[in-house]
Design goal:
- The complex is a heterodimer of chains A (541) and B (303).
- Chain A is mostly helical and 541 residues long.
- In chain A, 73% of the residues lie in helices and 1% in strands.
- Chain A has 22 helices and two strands.
- Chain A has two domains: 275 residues, no CATH class; 254 residues, no CATH class.
- With 303 residues, chain B is of the alpha/beta class.
- Chain B is 33% helix and 30% strand.
- In chain B, the strands form three sheets. Chain B has a six-stranded mixed β-sheet with strand order 5-6-7-3-8-9, sandwiched between helices. In chain B, strands 11-12-10-13 form a four-stranded antiparallel β-sheet, covered by helices on one side.
- The chains are: A mainly alpha (541), B alpha/beta (303).
- The interface between A and B is medium-sized, with 31 and 37 residues.
- Chain A: This is Exporter of polyketide antibiotics.
- Chain A: Keywords: Membrane, Transmembrane, Transmembrane helix.
- Chain B: Pfam families: ABC_tran, DrrA1-3_C.
């Protein structure tokens, strides 16, 4: 019997399990790609508009960080500038989640053990997962290309755009395959893969932010960090502006190397185990574990620490890049002059802070969604049953996790604001001013974050079995509508669905209490309804 | 108060499927009550209704004199639950989980905990993710028996335990029974039920089909008898209580309802008994017939 016996059947099983999920990811992405051109044309109809915008952009690291280095003025160039990196992140998540779902998650739930007892080769499960994900990325690349060609964009550039996306997806799939061999839990494997996507996004962001402006004043050469990032490779291919096909070699090479590594690791370990052996622990519980709150803290601790590291890196980045932004401002470049005319003294740094703090708000939303969905994981895993069969009431049990999500988000926002403010202040010799800008701006994200908590509690109380899907969907809508709404050229009424559309953009905008209080009230109503529903419903096991 | 658990006419539906369909159950204080039924009969659902984790659609439920949904927290401090499928937090050790369950229940006897750990040969320093099914069950069993509670709700607590551990478990049940505590024991292991239970209730498809003491139930069982006589046997088949009789001259094999055993033996005397072997009435046979779809109450009662 071969190492790969049964792969075909496992591929069919995976496709059957993913028959709704993968098509949704792929078609959704293709639809966003298809809608991009009209959005770009609507936002910047003439070449003059584009030139003006890009001249300002090349001196604004904040925008470069979250978009891409501009490559030209055509429709295709603007599209690659505005949307390529964002879509690459989506494709990355589609790929890593699928790989972990069909490898480590199967092992964790014991399904691989069943499969492994049958006429199935040792390498078949991983091979099947990689075939499915490779196929998904191929289909996605083709559909994206077709969507772009259908929007009347040049064929070659569209192909470069589509293949760049697919190649980025494949690279992240291979990273997830390695992660799934190393750690024992699917959650941890997904966490490692998500960190890789975040790091790739950040690396190319830094590369773009510190890129060199070309003599024409609106295109850029990126700095070296972009070359280290799989998302960066997709942008470096320069779709519609050179189509550097040879860059596809890098993702393909990394894919092959990582895949080889994943198989090598898989051959050397036991099914169900990780590479790191489980350690022994204490025979007795410490007193602080022995309460619902203590238990919730123990379960949430690792998640919060992971996020604190991410927030810390991001805050440090805001604080250090801020000085580069104000240097650009001091140099009296054309863009800085324009911005000074528009927004008055200091506007450049402030708009940079505002853009960054919006991203911090999105990260806080992602943290609380993950933290609150833990209660659903506890319920589905049968551990809530065991806990609620003791002298712990439902309110106290749910409340313990709520307290940690709320305090955790508050801590992350304050920590980021303080760290960014301190570093920015030290760089610009105005610690008080920078703290005064960044700390209130970070804390102002809290009410919108509370709404995300309230929303997850509501879906948990109302439709527990769908809580996971609806929770992440809600996060996607909140971030996409609140932060990328203008890019997608959405009507204001649609953008208003996102709580983050209502957060005043401190320190640019004036601090107004009314929207923040309103957001907090809505959050309490949502959460209160969710708690009440949970207390009245059956446990959904 | 002499009734620990009183359930009457309880209905619970999940969508279109009816898990409990007018279930009755009565457990007295201080007794070990066996709770039996085939897979999917509704045993775990009943226990979850008793715990207030599920809400009954109709019927009356009373637990330790309280209402399982309204008074859930107060009642839970007075009971210990061992689920059929013990799920633990993968990164907590067994010892931590035991302490946690004990504390959340309202206290744990530390000496008893350590003694039980020894008795069940459980290593409390291992992380729960490395435990086998049996070891996860031991965690829940130790946590339950180390708690000072009035009522134990045990849902197939020994399905993953080896025979030595099974013996240790039975010893624990006898100890808490001697202290006057009440136990509802759902089980598929007939020897365990015979060894421990004062009364049993058998449920099928969400309904109680039999309830009584083991002695009462024995009356519903049949003894298998094989006899050899001096003279050819006649008329045996027509006797009340005799089933599946095979008579060949002076040999006969048959089953007889326990209630009619005496009369049948007296009848056989007239053919001058030479040899007789009998297999004792087993509850297993009774359960088997209740578990299978064909078995009905009438058939068992021999009517």
């Amino acid at each position: 019997m071969g190492q790969f016996t049964g792969t075909g059947r496992l591929v069919r099983l995976a496709l059957r399990r993913d028959r709704i999920q993968l098509p949704l990811w792929i078609l959704g992405t293709a639809l966003v790609v298809f809608s991009m051109k009209s959005a770009v044309v609507g936002q910047f109809p003439t070449e003059k508009d584009r030139l003006g915008a890009l001249r300002a952009v090349v001196d604004t690291p904040a925008i470069l960080m979250f978009r891409n280095s501009p490559t030209g003025l055509s429709d295709g160039d603007m599209l690659a500038f505005g949307a390529l990196t964002f879509i690459a992140v989506v494709v990355g998540f589609m790929s890593t989640l699928a790989v972990v779902r069909h490898t480590r998650q199967n092992e964790e739930t014991g399904r691989t053990e069943m499969i492994g007892s049958m006429a199935v080769g040792r390498r078949a499960p991983l091979t099947a997962a990689m075939i499915v994900v490779t196929g998904a990325n191929l289909v996605l690349a083709v559909l994206s290309t077709l969507a772009l060609i259908a929007s009347d964009l040049p064929t070659a550039g569209s192909l470069a755009f589509g293949l760049g996306l697919g190649a980025a997806g494949l690279t992240f799939a291979a990273i997830a395959a390695v992660a799934a061999q190393i750690v024992e839990g699917a959650r941890s494997a997904n966490g490692i893969a998500a960190s890789a996507i975040g790091a790739a996004y950040l690396l190319r962001g830094v590369g773009d932010a510190f890129g060199e402006v070309q003599p024409d004043g609106y295109t850029m050469t990126t700095a070296w960090p972009t070359w280290l990032s799989p998302i960066g490779w997709a942008t470096l291919m320069k779709p519609y502006a050179g189509n550097r096909w040879w860059l596809l070699v890098l993702p393909v090479l990394l894919f092959v190397v990582l895949l080889w590594l994943a198989f090598a690791l898989a051959d050397r370990r036991d099914i169900g185990m990780g590479m790191i052996a489980a350690r022994r622990g204490p025979a007795r519980a410490v007193p602080r574990l022995l309460s619902p709150l203590g238990l919730a803290w123990r379960l949430q601790r690792a998640t919060l620490i992971g996020w604190a590291v991410a927030f810390g890196v991001f805050g440090a980045l805001i604080g250090s890049v801020a000085s580069a932004a104000s240097e650009a401002f001091d140099e009296g470049t054309g863009a800085a002059r324009t911005l000074r005319e528009l927004g008055g003294d200091g506007a450049l740094t402030d708009s940079f802070y505002a853009a960054m703090l919006t991203m911090v708000g999105g990260m806080a939303a992602a943290y609380v969604v993950q933290a609150m969905l833990r209660v659903r994981a506890e319920e589905a895993g049968g551990r809530a049953e065991a806990t609620l069969a003791t002298g712990v009431g439902r309110l106290r049990w749910l409340g313990s996790h709520l307290v940690i999500a709320v305090l955790g988000a508050m801590f992350l926002l304050l920590f980021t604001g303080l760290l960014a403010g301190l570093l920015a202040g030290l760089n610009t010799d105005d610690v008080g001013g920078a703290l005064g800008d960044l700390v209130p701006g970070a804390v102002a994200q809290m009410p919108a974050t509370l709404i995300m908590i309230g929303y997850v509690v509501l879906v948990f109380g109302l439709v527990p079995r769908l809580a996971g899907a609806l929770g992440w969907l809600g996060l996607g809508v909140a971030v996409a509508f609140g932060q990328f709404g203008e890019l997608l050229n959405l009507p204001q009424a649609v953008m208003d669905i996102s709580p983050f559309s209502h957060v005043p953009a401190l320190p640019v905008a004036e601090a107004t209490a009314t929207p923040l209080v309103m957001l907090a009230v809505v959050a309490v109503l949502l959460g209160g309804a969710g708690v009440a529903l949970f207390r009245r419903r059956d446990l959904a096991l | 108060m002499t009734t620990a658990i009183s359930v009457s006419g309880v209905v619970k539906s999940f969508g279109r499927s009816r898990a409990l369909d007018g279930l009755d159950l009565s457990v007295d204080v201080g007794e070990v009550h066996g709770f039996l039924g085939p897979n999917g009969a509704g045993k775990s659902t009943t226990i979850r209704v008793l715990l207030g984790l599920l809400r009954a659609d109709a019927g009356q439920v009373s637990l330790l004199g309280g209402h399982p949904w309204r008074d859930a927290v107060a009642l839970h401090r007075r009971l210990a639950y061992v689920p059929g499928d013990v799920n633990l937090w993968p990164n907590l050790t067994g010892g931590e989980a035991i302490d946690l369950f004990g504390a959340l229940r309202g206290g744990l006897d530390r000496r008893r905990r350590d003694e039980l750990l020894e008795r069940f040969e459980l290593d409390p320093t291992k992380k729960a993710r490395t435990y086998s099914k049996g070891n996860r069950q031991k965690v829940a069993v130790v946590a339950a028996f180390a708690s000072d509670v009035e009522l134990f709700l045990l849902d197939e607590p020994t399905s993953g335990l080896d025979p030595l551990m099974e013996a240790a478990f039975q010893e624990c049940v006898r100890e808490v029974k001697r202290q006057g505590r009440t136990i509802l024991l759902s089980s598929h292991i007939f020897s365990e039920v015979e060894a421990l239970c004062d009364r049993v209730s058998i449920i099928r498809q969400g309904r109680t089909v039999e309830s009584g003491t083991l002695a009462e139930l024995r009356h519903l069982t049949r003894t298998s008898i094989s006899v050899e006589t001096a003279r050819p046997i006649s008329g045996l088949v027509e006797l009340p209580g005799v089933h599946d009789a095979e008579v060949a001259g002076t040999h006969a094999k048959f089953e007889v309802d326990s209630a009619d055993l005496d009369k049948v033996l007296q009848y056989l005397h007239r053919f001058e008994l030479r040899a007789l072997t009998s297999s004792p009435p087993s509850l297993e046979e009774l359960f088997m017939r209740h578990y299978s779809n064909q078995g009905t109450r009438e058939e068992l009662a021999g009517v």
